[in-house]
Amino acid sequence: MLGNLNHVALVVSDLKLACQSWQNLLGATVSEPQALPEHGVTVVFIDLPNTRIELLEPLGDGSPVSRFLEKHTGGGMHHICMNVEDILLARDELIAKGARILGDGEPRIGAHGNPVLFMHPGDFHGTLIELEEVKPVN
Ligand SMILES: CC[C@H](C(=O)O)C(=O)SCCNC(=O)CCNC(=O)[C@H](O)C(C)(C)COP(=O)(O)OP(=O)(O)OC[C@H]1O[C@@H](n2cnc3c(N)ncnc32)[C@H](O)[C@@H]1OP(=O)(O)O
Ligand SMILES: [Co+2]
Fold it and tell me: Where is the VOC domain (predicted)?
């Protein structure tokens, strides 16, 4: 089922300051901030040779990362995202095996314009997992 690591997501309390740290200390190239009100976050991506880092800041009331930030003052690692070729097939297989899909169970469009789903961290030993549908190029 699993493809490449798509991104590792870090929640930060101040996106502008976090971008400056990654740029100035690590020489990272940081994308322009993208507001995703439907997901309650503002996001930037940092491209690495083999994957991406996603920096997340809460956006609006009821952001899914607000409570995380309250518990982890200053921020921290929030989720990992892996590619799947067919997200509905992956979802149905996971449900059949007893795993819980967050939200209403339907994929939503993520930051890259692809369908995404989140799995309950309780089913993965305390790690929040995102799956993103990425079709193979050939
Ligand atoms: C899609 C756009 C973009 C992209 O990549 O394209 C993004 O990635 S947006 C990312 C933000 N969106 C989400 O995270 C959506 C899925 N998340 C959720 O639905 C919630 O955050 C949820 C259910 C994981 C937690 O909700 P909430 O914080 O309101 O609940 P609790 O604080 O009560 O937490 C319940 C339980 O889960 C543990 N928890 C929470 N967050 C994490 C985490 N990031 N990693 C590991 N575990 C986490 C929390 O500690 C609680 O555990 P418990 O044992 O019950 O105390
Ligand atoms: Co993500």
Answer: 4-134
ipTM metric? 0.97
Tokens representing residue 95 in the block: 């449900």
Whether 107 and 91 have beta carbons less than 8 Å apart is answered as: yes
**Considering the domain 5-133 in this protein, what is its CATH number?**
3.10.180.10
Residue nearest to atom 2 of ligand 1 (CA): 110
Active site residue 132: no
| Domain spans, the chain | 5-133
pTM of the model: 0.97
How many angstroms is it from 80 CA to the middle of ligand 2?
A: 7
